[in-house]
Amino acid sequence: MARTPRRRGWLEWIERGERAHEMYEDGEYIRDRVEAGTTTGDASSVDEAGDVGHIREGVIVVVVGDTSDRVGFITEMQENFNEMLEYATSVLDTLPGGSDTYDPGGGVAVPSGGGQLLGGSGRSY
């Protein structure tokens, strides 16, 4: 059956609608990732990051899943660890004597007599 111009026009509109829906879902995914990156963790985030069941599922995904599944799992784990780190940082800030600033200043490191190594190097001695 040959496609008439009218039917071809409808098919084009259906394809446009499907593309728009896919773009909407992609936008929702990105919005969720941004929101997850800006949330603060709580005590439950420690449990989520160490959830053995979730990690087991992730190992299965890594072994038998496709690339998008692997990226999804990695993203999820990174978000869990970010929330856990934010929670740990907030707990440390509440400890007595805690400070929310860090000043690494104090001068430049100088070796004493050449016998002190200040950093790793690829050179052999």
Textual characterization of the structure:
The protein has helices at residues 5-38, 43-49, 52-64, 67-94. Helix 2 packs antiparallel against helix 4 (67-94). Helix content is 66%, strand content 0%. The chain has 125 residues and is mostly helical. It starts with a helix and ends in a 31-residue tail after the last helix.
| Subunit organisation of the chains | single chain
Q: How far do the termini sit from each other?
A: 81 Å
Low-confidence stretches: none
Proportion of β residues?
under 5%
Provide mean pLDDT, rounded. 78
Give the strand tally.
Answer: 0
Protein structure class:
mainly alpha
String of helices and strands = HHHH
What radius of gyration results from the CA coordinates?
Answer: 26 Å
> Helix amount, in percent?
55-70%
The number of helical runs is 4
User: How can the largest sheet be summarized?
Assistant: none
Q: Judging from the principal axes of the Cα atoms, what is the shape?
A: elongated
Structure at a glance:
Helices cover 66% and strands 0% of the residues. It is mainly alpha-helical and 125 residues long.
